[in-house]
Structure formats: C-alpha cells, structure tokens
C-alpha cells in the first residue's frame, strides 16, 4: 500500500539534499516493507514484510502472496526501472530481525 506520509517525507528529504528520489514500487507499493535506503539511493525492501503486507492488502494466503511477488514484482525489476539496474530497488530475503528470532 502507498504510504502517503512516508512518500512525502522521503520527497522532502531528497529535495533538501538535492538528490534524485529512489525508485519505489508503484501499483502494489510495499511502502511499509522498506527497511532502508542505500548510500547510492536504492530503496531496500524486506521480502518477508512484502509478503505480509501483500497478504493483508489482498486478503490471501502466504503461498499466493509469495507467488505473486516472485512473478509480478521481482521478475519485473528490470522493466520497472527502465533498465537502470544501478537504481533498481534491492529486496533482502533475510533481515537482522529474522536472524535474531532464530538465534
């Protein structure tokens, strides 16, 4: 889901530092799954948070959410960024939180 408050804050921040905004997912935006921005301005998403967000937004089970994200989001990264691999979002599959929960 698009988080308007987050997007406005991000836009204000990047205007202040006079840099281009990172490329974010549109359509099914996953804004609440963003865990950071890299030094070179790429958005970083947590895959498991994306799955949870999709399940909640679309009222579906985990398998359907994972299949949709894998096929329609991850597979289309190059298209979404007009071939700008250096600007495409990064999706991590294991986070520090995941590691801590398992440890």
Please summarize what this structure is:
With 103 residues, the protein is mostly helical. It contains 5 helices and 3 strands; from the N terminus they run H-E-E-H-H-H-E-H.
Explain what this protein looks like in three dimensions:
- The protein has 103 residues and is mainly α.
- The chain has one domain.
- The protein is 48% helix and 11% strand.
- The chain is built from five helices and three strands.
- Strands 1-2-3 form a three-stranded mixed β-sheet.
- A hairpin with a 5-residue loop joins strand 1 and strand 2.
- The radius of gyration is 14 Å and the shape is globular.
- The N and C termini lie far apart (31 Å).
- 15% of the residues are buried.
Give the topology, please.
Layout: H1 4-16, E1 34-37, E2 43-46, H2 47-58, H3 62-74, H4 77-80, E3 90-92, H5 96-102
Parallel strand pairs: 2-3
Antiparallel strand pairs: 1-2
Helix pairs in contact: 2-3
